[in-house]
């Protein structure tokens, strides 16, 4: 069983590993647990996904005024579609969530951080294309 945090209501769901790719739905709100899109993370939802999910979490730290962030956004979304349900991808707006950005020492954006079991295991600064993101994640996670 893997714990999956719902991207809509942040409820925690237990899903059998062999059923992750079968389109599971949240037991609390009934919405899909995976939609092939990055999850917009707030302070509360970030903590929930970081601490309660059994999936690796890749977070894109970005800002609306950042040109390279805007350029990378479609690639990050496409990477989410390719990596789910093995990995959850999320986005943290560093302007709206300054405390999270400060906690992780974000000095340049975009910055990707890969978390597993609540701990940072890899970091990559700078814009990347879809294949680069997928390859970096797969190498870092070991899939």
TrEMBL record:
The keyword Iron does not apply. Pfam families: Thioredoxin, Zn_ribbon_Thio2. Residues 20-142 form the Thioredoxin domain. CDD domains: TRX_family (cd02947). Keywords: Disulfide bond, Electron transport, Metal-binding, Redox-active center, Transport. The keyword Electron transport applies. InterPro entries: Thio2_N, Thioredoxin, Thioredoxin-like_sf, Thioredoxin_CS, Thioredoxin_domain. Coiled coil: none annotated. GO terms for cellular component: cytosol. One of its GO terms (molecular function) is protein-disulfide reductase activity. Belongs to the thioredoxin family. PANTHER family: GEO12009P1, THIOREDOXIN 2. This is Thioredoxin.
């Amino acid at each position: 069983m893997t714990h999956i945090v719902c991207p809509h209501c942040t409820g925690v769901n237990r899903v059998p590993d062999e059923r992750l790719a079968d389109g599971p739905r949240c037991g609390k709100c009934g919405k899909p647990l995976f939609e092939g899109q990055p999850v917009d993370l707030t302070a509360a939802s970030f903590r929930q996904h970081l601490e309660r999910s059994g999936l690796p979490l890749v977070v894109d730290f970005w800002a609306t005024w950042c040109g390279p962030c805007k350029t990378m956004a479609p690639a990050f979304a496409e990477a989410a579609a390719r990596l789910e349900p093995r990995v959850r991808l999320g986005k943290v707006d560093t302007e709206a969530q300054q405390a999270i950005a400060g906690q992780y020492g974000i000095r340049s954006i975009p910055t990707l951080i890969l978390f597993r079991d609540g701990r940072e295991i890899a970091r990559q600064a700078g814009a990347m294309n879809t294949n680069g993101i997928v390859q970096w994640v797969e190498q870092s996670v070991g899939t």
